[in-house]
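Reviewer 2 asked us to include a model.

Predict the structure of this chain.
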Amino acid sequence: MVRSGPTYHSLMDRGTWTSRSRSALRQWAITVSAAFVVLLSVGTALGAMTEADVPGWAEGLIYGYGLLSLAAGVWCVRLIHTRDRDIRRSTLLLGVLQTALPVGPVMGFALPRFIRTQPEREAATASALYGASLILVLWRDMLGQTTGTSMVRTFAGGESDQAVTVGPLSLITIYLLTLLIPIGIGLYQRSKERLAGAEEELAATGQTAADMSTRLSRKEEREMIAREIHDRIGHRLSLVALYAGGLEMTGEDAEVNGRLRQVRRSAQEAIDDLQDLIRIMRDPTSGEFVPESHSLADLAEVIESVLGAGHQVSSTVMIDDPASAPELLTSAAFRIVQELLTNSIKHAPNSPVRVRVVGGPGEGLSITVVNGIEHDAGASARAGGLVGVQERAEALGGWTEVARDAGEFRVRAWMPWGSDTAR
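Predicted model (structure tokens):
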């Protein structure tokens, strides 16, 4: 599925806004419902207090108790609205307030979230305490005998300020509904969250299995490639070394024997490098492949190996302080010279090759290889080896230049040495 950036982000923003709007609406609905219950409970309690026949000296205490209940009711609404900040503290305080003062079953508004977010044992304890406190809440409310002095009698029906009788079955039903509804909501939300967590875990397990399958598939591919390399290239290199050794033993020309010896040595080195690469391909955890270490002084050996193979090479190597060259520069220079000489032998086997390597700290390192054109120079320029030369030079901040001029094919590469930048 293709997603365009602006449209996708617009839909995401709209979805986030909708989710937040629903959450805020649900929060305010709970707060308004709690305020209604608190107002009704405190109102009926104040009605019962005003109708009570008490001595004159106790009227002040009754009004003080009423004001305290009203203040506690306001605090309960605030605790319910902000319960997400500290659900443990909010639930505990609401339980204490509904037990001590006629504010209604306010703990039930915080109990669902408490059950959903807290450990099972604590959730069970809070539910039991709520059930016990609810008995006291209903008993205190039932002391009022009319609809104006009892919240339960108000819900039971009847004319205003008339005595209403509530039977035991109705009272038990009200108790169970008030107790079980918040507990049921909490358990439902808890199960829903656990199910979502299980689905996420299942998805993660599936992703892990898919990743493992991909790794196994790649391992099988590496095994197949390593086997093919070993069987084909390794076999042919072994034959080259074997034939060169046989010719060296039967040959009588010292110069030819020297060249055969160089061929045999190069083939054996290639076999050793190939075996290291195959080992890493088959088991990447067995250790990193450590490339052969070279220095700029080794460039002479590369040129001599070409001379040993009977190719005409003229070289100029002038490097200031080669020992101070960074390791990355040294490796890149060695591989670039090696690759350019290989390309020259491949595409112009009968033409002499000129090699020029000059540079030093603060000056950069310049490598130029020139050979005659025996085949299409464009084909040489498109060779994969020259792409590798370009990538090596550019990786160090340098550049390459490929030109065809006066019947010659010229490749020049420059790399900075030290803090230099490409120029």
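Residues 296-415 form a domain with the Heat Shock Protein 90 fold (CATH 3.30.565.10). Residues 168-250 form the longest helix (83 residues). We have added this to the supplementary material.
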